[in-house]
Structure formats: structure tokens, C-alpha cells
Amino acid sequence: MTKIQPKKGDKIVAWFSCGAASAVAAKRTIEKYGDICEVLVVNNFIKEEDEDNQRFLKDVEKWLGVKIHTAVNSKYKSCSCEEVWDDRQYMSGVEGAPCTLELKKKARYEWELKNRPDWTVMGFTKEEKDRFINFKTNERPASLHVLSRISKKKCFEIVTKAGIELPLMYRLNYPNANCPGCVKATSPTYWNHVRKMHPEVFKKRAEQSRAIGARLVRVKGVRIFLDELHPDAKGRSMKNMNVECGIFCNAK
Known about the structure:
Layout: E1 11-16, H1 20-33, E2 38-43, H2 52-64, E3 68-70, H3 81-88, H4 98-115, E4 119-121, H5 129-138, E5 143-144, H6 152-161, H7 168-171, H8 188-197, H9 199-212, E6 217-219, E7 222-224
Parallel strand pairs: 1-2, 1-4, 2-3, 4-5
Antiparallel strand pairs: 6-7
């Protein structure tokens, strides 16, 4: 079977999440297809992300040599997770998190309807082949796995070698560059890390989740409120957590 690849004049969108992998994916896409295709790099701005993510975005923008555009859900122009949670009266649970649905997926769909890209690139590394196949099968068949031979660790090395400091979230030992206090996380290890590194965020999440009735943390198999979490409680290692703000997060 002939392998289908972008042709001259096609439009490719590379989605940049302020993480190392998506930065390298955008770079590789421009290097490989930039001479024959229009490559657009697009970010979903999220108000609750650490402010250093925007510093990283600007540094990556210079590295890529192109403007990084922004996709916004017109219903939530503030791009605030907290607004979405208040509006939906739902934060996270078995049905996912509405912030991902509204601020990432729906924002992406809205952008795609206006710009009509021919191809999609996400920051799936070589360890995430199954996630790429899932995305290609269920979301966007015309997708390119530009990091099929590049690991997440290698992405860190490439970005650092380019003279770009990694986002503060990585340097604070979070598993990714998502918002601090990601409501998809349930581990007491994670939430006590938030309590230590971002105490003001922990307080906000505790207050809002209590008001909405969302038990965000699980201790010994039981869901409890954040304000009930003992400061010394531990769960699985942060390195083994998958709380990435990804495209397959379903929502109520």
C-alpha cells in the first residue's frame, strides 16, 4: 500500500502544548515539510497554566522562526478552567475533565473549521505509538507521527541543546507542563506536591472542589475532598502518573 504523505501546497497544523515534545514535533514538521507545505503552529492558551509556560512559548517561537497562533473556544474567551468548572459544576471524575473538552478539544475543532488543515501533528513520542494510532483512528486520519523515533527524554535534550530552558513545571518535578493542580490527578502524592509547590493553587482547588462537591483525590481506593487530605499522605510515584492534558480526556 502506498504511504500517503503531505503534498506540495498542503496545510499542516502542529499543536503546541507548551511541552518539550510538542515543541520538537513542531520543529521537525517545519524542517521536513516547511519547504512544500504551509505549517501552522497553534497553542491552546490556558489561564491556569504556570506563567513560565508563556516564556517557554516565546523562546520556542524564536527557535521555530514562525508565529505560534492561539486557538480559543469562543464560549470561554477567558480560557479559564475555573470558569468552566463553575459553569459546568463538574471538575473531574470517571467522565474526564470538562476543561480539556472545552478549552482544548472544542477550541481545536473551532480553529479547524475556520482554517481547514490537511494534516495534523501532535507531540506523540515514540513511547506513545498506541496513543498516536488511537488519535489517527478515532480523531484525525490525516495525522503525522513526526516523533515516531524520538523519546520524551530525547525531546528534553533537543530543547535544552537549542539553548531553551525547559518550563518551570518540569523543573519543579511535575510530570508534565500542565496546569499545577490538574484536576485529572487523583494521587495524594501529586496533590501534596501541589500543596508544597503551589500552595495558593491547592487552596483554590480545595475551596472550589468542596463548593462543587468534587472529591479529587483518592486515598486507599476512597475518594475524598482535598481539604481532607493529610499532608503526609502518599500514593504512587509522580513519575508513573499520566495526568497529561490530552486530547482523549472525555468530559461530562
